[in-house]
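Milestone M4 deliverable, item 7.
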Amino acid sequence: MTIPRRSLRAAGTLAAAAVVGLTGAVLTAGPAAAHTPTWDVTCTEVSLHLSAYNGKVTNQVTVTVDGKDLLPAQNFGTGLDKKLDLPEHDKPLTVHLIVKAGDGDQYSKDDTKQAPVCKGNTPTPTPTPSETKPSETPTTAKPAPTNTPSETASSSAPAAATPSPSSPDLAETGSSSSTPIIGGAAVAVLLAGGGIMWSVRKRRTAQH
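Output delivered:
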């Protein structure tokens, strides 16, 4: 059986087209399968593994934690392996990864993950300050009770002491009962003296 040449040529053309198509598909799928950004977040660190990037262009990676730079914009070539320590935290952190591929935005990556709190690393919350109450109510010391005062008021004037019968007589400070007698005797002496003086003068007058 003889196969016509036209049929052979047609078959060859189809085979060549198939080979070209497969080659193009492989070339197209190659870059798509490359650009592998792998990263992981734990409670203490961020691990980056960027591989199979185009080393002929400039690629860039940035990592932020709660809006703050953990890894400022850093350029890399075909790949990058890096571990970044997270700050101590008592609540989950938001970690944001941005990878910009230099050969097309379709190969770039923008992803966010949460960094959990490490077990046993949660700080004890401080108590809210409040007004402290004294443990014991201070009491004012009361003076010791004094003896009950007697019914007689202490402010009343003391009764005048009455002299006892046996007490000695006080010295007389005023006139006694003999004062009139003494006075009368003095008057009598004066009168007698006056009478004598009068009689003496009378005799002298009579003699002259």
